[in-house]
Design brief:
The complex is a heterodimer of chains A (251) and B (284). Chain A contains ten helices and ten strands. By secondary structure, chain A is α/β, with parallel strands linked by helices. In chain A, a hairpin with a 2-residue loop joins strand 1 and strand 2 (17-28). The chains are: A alpha/beta (251), B mainly alpha (284).
């Protein structure tokens, strides 16, 4: 299977304090990689490295290489183009202070798409994929920040899908969404898998079990284990810590 | 601003602002007329004394001050944008300017007036000439005003200009930087994660959110400068004074026009921004 992202020897320090220690693994194309682990284990930092928003953190320093389609991302000159290839959903919903329509159309417009008919079509498709269309189709011009927390989170998912990313990073997307809607979005993710590679950071171990093809377990900045989900959630993973975490003995 | 207000309340507020504006306007126009009439009589004598002067004295001063503060405010806003958005926090230029701004911004504005007055007096030796000035004996007798006349090409004019810039710039830089800093980081991060460039983030997110505060910052800087450097006005106006008793009269008139202007501008800006505050304001 083709590797979409290759990470080798990745080390991140915040003011000398390590956040990721020599992490190396590959993400295959068109798979859902579940990333589990307790807080402070470097999951969010990993996503920030991939879309190069770690550069905005002045005290962070990084070593090692991250390759997207075989190209080292730190050598890519067009960083905005790179970020457009990677969809990102943050744990807390951040509605941009624009209308719902403009929220979803923000990234395509930033990329230079102006045609109204294309934008309309795109907005409708993305909102439908994020299971939000039925609730907001009558009020697309109201302020996106006026939506409820769960709706805003789905709006951010629609926004992340709007620029047709190759890699979709979901950072605990279900934290503000009710279980029924979560299930609807999980169904969407399963269909999206055919078009893109999905990195799913989650605190819900069962969610990783339901969705992920492979699962990586992080602990204190170390990659403890990465294997197919069946192995991680079986009774015999390689590491004892994985077994303990997955079965709720700690964490 | 007004994030928690309902639509009806906001409308009510806007209506009351309009009414205040109209009332102030109807009061202000007669005052303005009186001002102009008072000085129109002096214009001939004044222009005889200072040939460069073409407008009536109060208007001339007011226009001078307005254009200076306009330029200073625009420059201050641009400076704040550059410091906050383009220079890293550790840059020595930024640290240097920020420390200067912190010092100058903390000085009460009356001290600027006193500073300028001190330079003014010591430069022109005016203290000695108070009361010494005699009224013009006839048309063309500019000698009486000679010791006190400051045409626009003398250094005294630049002292006034520099005082204004010195006072308005730090205030504007400080408040504009605070306004830019108040734009929540997650909003910027979200916009960056969607592949927007620095300029696109500024244009579509940061400026709309911070615009209200930036406008208010400029307005506040200008009105505080106008109100407290009225002291300089008073002294600047002396150049057209031919009797000591008349001076206090002019000073009061000038002060009132400056205050009136500052109230006007603040209400105007409030009127302009309250209409656009709603879509620009993030609830989170």
């Amino acid at each position: 299977m083709k590797n979409k992202i290759e990470i080798s020897g990745l080390e991140v320090h915040y003011e000398g304090k390590p956040a990721l220690n020599r992490v190396s693994f590959d993400v295959h194309e068109n798979e859902i990689l579940g990333i589990i682990g307790p807080a402070q284990s470097g999951k969010t930092t990993l996503l920030k490295v991939i879309n190069r928003t770690l550069e905005f953190v002045p005290e962070a320093s990084m070593e090692g290489t991250v390759k997207l389609d075989g190209v080292d991302i730190s050598t890519i000159g067009d960083v905005y183009g790179l970020r457009r290839r990677i969809g990102m959903v943050l744990p807390l919903p951040v509605g941009l202070p624009l209308s719902i329509y403009d929220n979803v159309a923000f990234a395509p417009r930033a990329a230079g798409l102006r045609a109204k008919s294309q934008l309309d079509e795109l907005v409708e498709r993305c909102l439908q994929q994020a299971a939000l269309w039925d609730e907001v189709k009558d009020r697309l011009n109201t302020l996106g920040t006026k939506l409820s927390g769960g709706q805003q989170q789905r709006l951010t998912i629609a926004r992340a899908l709007s620029h047709a990313p190759e890699v979709l990073c979901l950072d605990e997307f279900s934290i503000a969404i009710d279980p029924v809607t979560t299930m609807r979005i999980e169904e969407v993710l399963k269909t999206l898998k055919k078009e893109m590679t999905i990195l799913l950071v989650t605190n819900l171990v069962q969610q990783a079990k339901r969705l992920a093809d492979r699962t990586a377990f992080f602990l204190n900045g170390d990659l403890v284990e990465i294997d197919t989900t069946d192995v991680i959630f079986s009774d015999t993973p390689t590491q004892q810590a994985t077994y303990d975490y997955v079965n709720g003995t700690f964490g | 601003m007004n994030a928690m207000m309902t639509r009806a309340l906001r409308k009510q507020e806007r209506v009351s602002q309009c009414i205040t504006f109209i009332i102030l306007g109807s009061v202000g126009i007669p005052i303005w007329n009186v001002l102009q009439k008072t000085y129109a009589a002096d214009t001939e004598a004044a222009s005889a004394a200072t040939p460069l002067n073409t407008l009536s004295p109060p208007l001339d001063n007011l226009y001078t001050v307005l254009s200076i503060s306009f330029v200073a405010i625009l420059f201050g806003i641009a400076c704040a944008f550059y410091l906050q958005e383009w220079l890293p926090q550790t840059n020595w230029v930024r640290r240097f300017i920020e420390s200067i701004v912190a010092i100058l911004g903390g000085v009460p504005s009356i001290f600027y007036g006193i500073l300028a007055t001190g330079i003014f007096f010591s430069y022109a030796g005016t203290l000695k000439t108070i009361g010494v000035v005699r009224a013009p004996q006839g048309p063309g007798d500019g000698a009486a005003l000679e010791s006190l006349s400051f045409p626009h090409d003398t250094p005294v004019f630049y002292i006034v200009v520099l005082t204004f810039i010195l006072m308005v710039m730090p205030l504007t830089i400080k408040t504009t930087q605070a306004a830019l800093r108040s734009v929540a980081t997650p909003i910027r991060e979200a916009a960056y994660a969607l592949g927007a460039s620095h300029w696109q983030v500024l244009k579509t997110q940061v400026i709309p959110i911070a615009l209200t505060q930036i406008l208010a910052a400029g307005c506040r800087a200008m009105s505080s400068a106008l109100a407290t450097v009225a002291l300089i006005f008073g002294i600047y106006v002396w150049q057209y004074t031919d009797a000591p008793g008349e001076m206090s009269n002019r000073f009061v008139l000038f002060l009132s026009s400056a205050l009136l202007f500052s109230i006007f501008s603040s209400i105007l800006i409030k009127l302009c921004t309250s209409a656009s505050a709603d879509p620009a304001h993030p609830t989170r």
